[in-house]
Amino acid sequence: MRIYNTATRQLEEFVTYTPRLARGYVCGITPYDSVHVGHGRVYVFFDMFRRYLEAQGYEVRLVINFTDIDDKIINKAREEFGAEAYKRWREVPERYIAEFFEMSKRLFIEPAYAYPKVTENVEDMVAWIKALVEKGYAYTAPDGSVYFEVGKVPNYGVLSRQRIEELMAGARVEPEPGKRNPLDFALWKSWTPGEPWWNAPWCPGRPGWHLECVVMSTKHLGMPFDFHGGGADLIFPHHENEIAIAKAYFGVDNFARYWIHVGYLTVRGEKMSKSLGNVVTLKEVLSKYSGEALRLAYAMSHYRKPMEFSYEVLDQAEEMAKTIYTAYDELGQAVGDAGEEDKEALDYGRYVEEFYAALEDDFSTPQAAQQLYGLARYIISTVLHKIDKISRNTALSILSQYVKMADILGVLERREVPKEVEEAVKAAVEVRAKLRKDRQYQLADYIRERLAGIGVELHDFGQRTYYTYRRGNRLR
């Protein structure tokens, strides 16, 4: 597989440091508000990436963090709890972390290898800051805050392709007293009355954002590890500053081999943001559409390109998901009707080959999703009509490869039909087959209509009848 590496601006062959072990870190949310569809795009992409690697025989250790202490969390706590914010601020991240896990479940995102929180790793961060001060890359301000000195790091700006002189010329001095350079950033923030704090040699306070991820990623994955990712908005300054810290601490040029970034999500052509009032939450979308439809909607745009969010795309994706389930349900039932030998060759292999070829070429999910959908339609239009002309082994092979493709994209996650529905439908199909044989078509149609009322669609292929069960949009 070739993947685009932001660090080199090139497509590169994906090769891990340890054979068949892929270690990756994706920057997680700051849990001060509901997760939105922009967040969902990032985590669904890396879930698909992880599923693909696992399908290729890799063990994947994917780490996603929570920045569970931050100015935004403190401000949210003050809005909600007023004078009680100092005591109750933890309720804010706990609430939105719980929502993150619920939405991840609804999106069928597989659990990560680890979910470290900043508040659980402060001691490690203090140790890193001590080392950086001792190495001469960090300094203490009069108020006790500790800043990383960007000018001490060779080639600062390598990830975002910016020169430090240009950054200096365009920089605005931030309201942080004691900084030697406007580009310097906080490793440790001094305590402000009414805020949470932890003990440190310099003053009570809390860690800075850029330090947190490099500490937690290398703690869980070692150094160097294989890939580091997140949204494209994190390239500068967050990921740039992570690289600078790692260079100073470890003395290496890169602590992650591949840097993978997911493009912006736009609404009516504008980047989604609270200031524009165009934020769409995952909770809102998943109350109307299935998680698989949203996954397919994400897949329709290449991960590196901006994606325009619209409900029209979701409607299209929901219809695609229904077709994908129809092919799965009915081919599973049709296997029993297959013959003993192949009397006719079927051209289904091209969909399989082009699906994997698309993913191997910079993880092109738009093409991969079209191949999966194309195979679903081929199963319905051709395979089911010729089921008695192919062997059971061939039918099972088609079904197996189809399921593997769908599992990589995560769009056949509600395969199980309720047992009571399955038993009732089988009995109804048998009765209807007898009615059709006896030419009692009006009664046969009545059974079809009643089954449709409970979400079951019947499709006739000559004397054979297969059914598909329409899963509800919500995760059961």
TrEMBL record:
CDD domains: CysRS_core
Top-level taxon in the UniProt lineage: Archaea
GO molecular function: ATP binding; cysteine-tRNA ligase activity; zinc ion binding
Motif ('KMSKS' region): 271-275
Motif 'HIGH' region boundaries: 29-39
Domain Cysteinyl-tRNA synthetase class Ia DALR: start-end pairs: 354-425
EC identifiers of the protein: 6.1.1.16
Residues at which Zn(2+) binds: C27, C213, H238, E242
Keyword flag ATP-binding: yes
Sites where the protein binds ATP: K274
UniProt enzyme class: ligase
Cross-referenced NCBIfam families: cysS
Protein name as annotated: Cysteine--tRNA ligase
